[in-house]
Amino acid sequence: MRGVTPINPQKKIEADSNPVKESDYYEGERLTHLLDLIQRGIETSKLSNVNSLPEKIWLKKQIAIGINEVTRVLERMNPNNTSDQQQNPKQLQVVILVADCKPRMLTKHIPNLAASRNVPVLYVRDNKRASLRLGELVKLKTALAIGIKARGNDLNLLLKQILPRDS
């Protein structure tokens, strides 16, 4: 066969252009603290909800749930535009991503997309239980990615305390 380049399975795949530092991961006691903080923020935001929407609808308005929904919201955001993040409820304040999902290709695009929109990404891992723990927050069995929408509620105020200052 002339002109055909053989596929080399030994060829290294390029590493992510956005490397993750070990300090970016939430696991163990730090993960438990983060999830408790988010759960408290969700509960206090629900209590201050004057419209008294059904819980599932309220959650959907506050949190983008799942890889597809997080990707969709990030793609609709203006690149590198942080000035209107607090005014526009379609903006994400933070993306929480399961770091130990298999296959990795499912979530590989989210960190670069979030970085282009100036949205911080928090990585969670818990010996293959992170998706279960993240799912508990949003009343589902599992979740690989969730995005907290910037709506100016108690949840956003709590998350603002733990996010890096440059975001």
From TrEMBL:
Keywords: Ribonucleoprotein, Ribosomal protein. SUPFAM superfamilies: L30e-like. Residues 11-21 have a biased composition (Basic and acidic residues). Residues 1-21 are annotated as: Disordered. Residues 56-150 form the Ribosomal protein eL8/eL30/eS12/Gadd45 domain. It comes from the Eukaryota. The keyword Transmembrane does not apply. InterPro entries: Ribosomal_eL30-like_sf (IPR029064), Ribosomal_eL8/eL30/eS12/Gad45 (IPR004038). GO terms for cellular component: ribosome. PANTHER family: OS07G0636400 PROTEIN. This is At4g01790.
